[in-house]
Backbone:
């Protein structure tokens, strides 16, 4: 009871985006929603699963129609708000992919051109990629392969026993989530085309969509309203102030900022309709039973019916309401998830500072979007009330 009272006291409200928002608050299967009803659902699930802080945004017809934050942002009990700076984690990847698609539209890059064509010298000649010396498979890499996670690299080289980067599979053959691939795509843009990724994201997306508290590196101005992380062991970890630009996951953002970006993507604005179709075209179909561990050889057809796959920076599948796209963001004490149904221009965004939040992502998505056939088993989003009877996790996700 005390937990519920505390979390109710910490609810932070954001005005609905438009006067007609009440009429727009419906699930994709037509159920009416009210802000108060959504609040009750969110708070009830947070209490049941012991989730400390959570922000939820809903997009309908390409516009944010609901945005609220619940619970504390830090150990002192300061409230989480829609303008609290939170770690975006791998939401960064989808943001970066949107920039790449703008460059594609401008003819500055080609998704299917080998990266060797952009680099002034062979990739292994750069110290950062010297581990690949003697393996010519790097020449098969393209931006599409790097951005749809078929590079054949591990998620992070730091996860390798010797800390060295290597190919585990031939590029372009099979899905295996890899932050290394995303960071290599960033390297190609910066080294080969002399594009300042952070500056271009700021100019093209963050400034355009009034994302005033979003950056790929820490800014001192964030310190007045920033979230810590509540870990599974009960400890609280201070926000990590990242100083290096990493397209795979260095972005700080807020629920308000990233919901604005997500709404813009849903209405096809940053890329145009043709660019969005190309970004969301499945470059690979996924046959792994779970996303993590990333390089498992186990195969399944359990997601064949929904054509689960990966496009350029986004996961994709066919929902009962049309083609859907999604992106997660995960690290210790950070659990984020965004999903949109493209033809309906409708999305949900959930951002949390708590390790347990993923256990309520499926029930919240079902309640606020409808049964979108979320591939929750593949995502390892076991609902909190099934955790005791569910199969053990196949591995701990790291920085997805």
Residues:
């Amino acid at each position: 009871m005390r937990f519920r009272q505390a979390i109710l006291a910490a609810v932070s409200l954001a005005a609905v985006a438009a006067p007609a928002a009440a009429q727009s608050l419906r699930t994709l299967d037509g159920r009416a929603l009210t802000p108060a009803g959504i609040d009750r659902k969110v708070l009830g699930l947070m209490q049941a699963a012991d989730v400390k802080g959570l922000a939820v945004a809903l997009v309908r017809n390409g516009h944010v129609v609901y945005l609220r934050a619940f619970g504390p942002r830090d150990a002192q009990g300061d409230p989480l708000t829609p303008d609290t700076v939170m770690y975006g984690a791998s939401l960064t990847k989808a943001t970066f992919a949107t920039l790449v698609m703008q460059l594609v539209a401008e003819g500055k890059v080609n998704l299917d051109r080998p990266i060797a064509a952009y680099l002034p010298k062979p990739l292994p000649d750069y110290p950062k990629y010297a581990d690949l010396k003697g393996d010519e498979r790097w020449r098969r890499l393209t931006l599409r392969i790097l951005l749809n996670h078929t590079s054949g690299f591990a998620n992070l080289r730091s996860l390798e026993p010797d800390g060295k980067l290597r190919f585990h599979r031939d590029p372009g053959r099979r899905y295996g989530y890899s932050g290394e691939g995303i960071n290599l795509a960033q390297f190609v843009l910066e080294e080969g085309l002399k594009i300042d990724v952070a500056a271009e994201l700021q100019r093209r997306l963050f400034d355009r969509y009034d994302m005033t508290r979003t950056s790929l590196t820490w800014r001192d101005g964030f310190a007045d309203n920033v979230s810590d992380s509540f870990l599974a062991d009960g400890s609280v970890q201070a926000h990590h102030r990242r100083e290096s630009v990493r397209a795979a996951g260095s972005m700080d953002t807020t629920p308000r900022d990233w919901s604005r970006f997500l709404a813009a993507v849903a209405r096809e604005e940053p890329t145009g309709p043709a660019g969005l179709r190309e970004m969301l075209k499945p470059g690979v179909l996924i046959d792994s039973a779970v996303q993590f561990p990333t390089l498992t050889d186990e195969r399944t057809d359990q997601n064949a019916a929904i054509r689960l796959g990966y496009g350029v920076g986004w996961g994709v599948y066919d929902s009962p309401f049309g083609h859907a796209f999604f992106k997660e963001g995960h690290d210790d004490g950070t659990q984020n998830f965004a999903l949109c149904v493209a033809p309906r221009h409708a999305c949900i965004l959930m951002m949390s500072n708590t390790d347990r939040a993923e256990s309520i992502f499926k029930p919240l998505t079902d309640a606020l979007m409808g049964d979108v056939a979320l591939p929750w088993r593949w995502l390892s989003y076991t609902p909190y009330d099934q955790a005791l009877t569910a199969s053990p996790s196949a591995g701990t996700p790291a920085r997805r």
